[in-house]
Design goal:
elongated; disordered C terminus; Helix Hairpins; Beta-Lactamase; about 425 residues; alpha+beta; five-stranded antiparallel sheet; six-stranded mixed sheet; Heat Shock Protein 90
Amino acid sequence: MSQQPASEKELEELLAVLADLSSALYGDGATRRQIVVPAGQDAGARAEARYRALVEQIPAITFTVSLEEGAPEIYVGPQIEQILGFTQEEWMSDPILWFNQCHPDDRDIWHQEFSRGIQTGGPFRAQCRVFAKDGRTVWLHGEARLVRDDAGHPLFLQGVVFDITEQKLAERKMKEAQEVRVLNERLNAVGQMAASIGHDLRNPIGAIRNAWTLVSKKTSALPDVGSDKRTMDMFAIIDRELGRCSTILSELLEFARDRQPHRVATDLHALIDEVFSVVAKPAPTMLLVNEIDPAFEHPAIDADQIRQVLVNLVQNGLEAIPKDGSVRVTLGKTEEGDFLLEVIDNGKGIAAELKESIWKPLFTTKKRGTGLGLPIVVNIVGRHDGLVSFDSAPGKGTTFRIQFPPRPASEGPEPDAGGASELT
């Protein structure tokens, strides 16, 4: 038997490596698409089979698109079915299927790149999202080149498309981790500032409140003062604003506090009733609904800290709903066994452009807000090894989710379960 040329042997070794990679990607030998060359075929048939193996068994979608006048001719490799769920026949028989499946926000990317590539001769290179046949969103990276005839006229595009979904997911996770790190750094900086300001102002504000209480009692009893409406209105403003100063100081100190939670088994149904009793409803017709089953498992939490979390979230919900709106609280478990506490309102929702900003310390959309409510929530839930997230859409309300892992009770028996409640 004559020895094969070195170049042909190297090509066959390369094809063998690609076939092994294809085997790992496309399943066992019973289901993997294979190209078989019948024995006795001539050299041309064997060469064609090798090229087909190279084109159709690499872990990417190969394609060509005719640019000549007349009916467009399209070829796409069988990998399309593994990556997007469409068969070759489905994809090749519908010239606009690619456009229909491309994410609407990414179609312009391809249009712009196509125009640029035609003018310059390529290469074409772009990334976009495509909807698979089952509805999944798949990130694809495509590269193509323009092939011309000897007169310079464009004949067809040929290219390859890679599935980069896992890479994009990894990039997003890294970005989220970076954002969390930056947020934590900001929280620490604001926390140090809050602790300093809170401690410096607590004593003088307390002294002012005590002095004002004495002065207001004595002066309001005087006939000329107590009967003067304008003066009494000013007294009310001073009372209200001093109370607000105390509230701000309390929030600053709570934000700066880094006390580790003292976890005990807690009846969340009863805790929600306590929360409902202290929040302020802007309108008496607003509905507060406790949907937690009294018999549900009692999670081990720091009741005082989680009460603060719930007061902040429920109060936010009350300030977002209409006069006939509602705020509901539910408790369940995730598939992983974590507790999932939800505060659900049917209010105006959170605008898309604000969804990143609401977690930032001192950011607020309220006229008299401190911008510390949600950062306090994040801090406390973080101390419980939990996570805070939300879903919201303008006009469709907001759902805040608190997910935290179960912890054994530190001490004490479980409290007695109370009855179901609906507070109006």
